[in-house]
Amino acid sequence: MAEIKDYSKERASRGYDDAAEEDYRVKIRRHRAANMYRLLLIIGVCAGFALLLILQFNRHVYTEYEVIDVVETDGNTSSTDLRLGSSILTYSKDGAHARNDKGEVTWNQTYGLQDVLVSINGGTTALAGYNDREIYVANEEGIVSDITTAMPIKDVTVSEDGKVSAVLVDTLVTWIETYGPDGTKKYSGQTHMSNSGYPVALSLSPNGVLLGVAYVYVDAGVVKTSVAFYNFGDVGENSNDYMVSAYPYTDILVPMVRFMNNETCFAVGDSRLMMYKGAQKPEVTNEFLFDEEVVGVYYSEDYVGLVFNGGTDGGKYRMKVYSSQAKEIGTFDIGIDYNDIFFEEDGFVAYNDKECRITTLKGYEKFSGEFNEAVRLMAPTKGAYRYKLVTDSEIKTVQLR
User: Fold this and answer.
1) Is the per-residue pLDDT at 24 higher than 70?
2) pLDDT tens digits, residue range 285-325?
3) 50 by DSSP, 3-state: which?
4) Counting CB atoms within 10 angstroms of each CB, which of 110, 157, 197, 391 has the fewest?
5) Are 243 and 237 contacting, i.e. CB atoms less than 8 angstroms apart?
6) Least confident piece of the model among 53-57, 228-232, 301-305
7) pTM here?
8) Following DSSP, what letter does each residue of 144-183 receive, concatenated?
């Protein structure tokens, strides 16, 4: 038979005291609990301190800016400046050029266009002349292609990879032609007012796979609009004329269609904002109604803003902002006569040639001030609250303080 030991007697014979051991265990538990309380207290203090810093940062208002770099320019006051990726595009009826973030001219293109059409998609642009037959495609590094069309140009849109779609018109028929980055024609389709309608707005997705077009047509004596999407990839090859989806609207006109990113598009009508989602076959995700005149539309790959007259607190303008997820973010006052508005990661900038307002999408005002000289263009650059200010003779890099 196996031997059965009495461990309680053995522990006693070796001098163990159960009461003392239990007291030791209690002390260990108390010590661990005390350490845990100290750790939680430290975490709570750190979290509270971090929250305080975040609140102070959100509510901090910058009152001035410091000039940290200056580059002299040619001082052509008859030209127009636009953001081209991280570069600056300057164009006029006589030509165009781009400057990189160091102020260096990366390319220069001369031409003679009386009424310049400009489309920008990220760091790529297409410049054409209304009723002309030439399209110049360029990115931040240089000219990509030079396209000559067979018919007069009425509108143009470009993708970030250099594809171009253009509305061309001859005597009886309107055409939408799409060209590859090398300038070769890839797709051509004709439209008639009696069937598909007349294209009044169009936009290519950044990757050039999708083309969105707003058509105006007459049905039983009533003017209507249709927003159609074409897919130039594998999915579209299995569809009639590459069309993968279309949405008719009987009660509105739609003068604007824009892709925010490769799978999000919006269209603005005279009483409605429509948002579409889908990298292959865009579908309607949401619609937002309004009964006032839209005086401006501004967008990024994450947000779109509709500007209306009259602020909520008696200001001149207000802007309703929506996310690329088709959600309404909020309404924000714009207290100045702005020339331009652009979105940043967590807010937007409204400015004119004399003054600027910067507001977060949580409603905090980050900057309200005047420029030291007339500004033609304000553009974001690397670094928080660091911008480029383009004047008639200089490009200044400034940091808010």
Assistant:
1) no
2) 999 999 999 999 999 999 999 999 998 777 789 999 999 99
3) helix
4) 110
5) no
6) 53-57
7) 0.84
8) EEEEE-SS-EEEEEE-TTS-EEEEEE-SS-EEEEEE-TTS
CATH of the domain at 321: 2.40.10
The half-sphere exposure of 316 on its side-chain side, counting CA atoms within 13 A, is 8
A 10 A CB-CB count for 13 gives 9
157: phi > 0 → left, psi -120 to 50 → alpha, else beta; which? beta
**Torsion over CA: 212, 118, 89, 392 (sign):** negative
* pLDDT tops 80 at residue 227: yes
Q: Residue 172, CB half-sphere, CA atoms under 13 Å: how many?
A: 1
d(CA 16, CA 9): 10
Going by C-alpha positions, the residue among 283, 254, 248 that lies closest to residue 269 is: 254
Placement of tokens 């897919």 in the chain? 231
CA proximity to 164, closest of 191, 134, 190, 193: 134
Task: Compute the radius of gyration of the chain from its Cα atoms.
Answer: 30
Residue 386 lies in a domain: no
Residue-level pLDDT at 36: 77
Task: Give 296's strand partners.
Answer: 307
Residue type at position 206: P
Domain containing 308: what range? Answer: 295-362
How many angstroms separate the CA atoms of 120 and 125, rounded? Answer: 4
Report the domain count for the chain: 1
In a domain, 55, yes or no: no
**Across 68-72, average pLDDT:** 93
Query: Is 178 part of a structural domain of the chain?
Result: no
355 part of a folded domain? yes
Q: Name the one residue in this structure whose structure tokens are 């973030």.
A: 101
Given a contact cutoff of 8 angstroms between Cβ atoms, the answer to whether 391 and 376 are in contact is yes
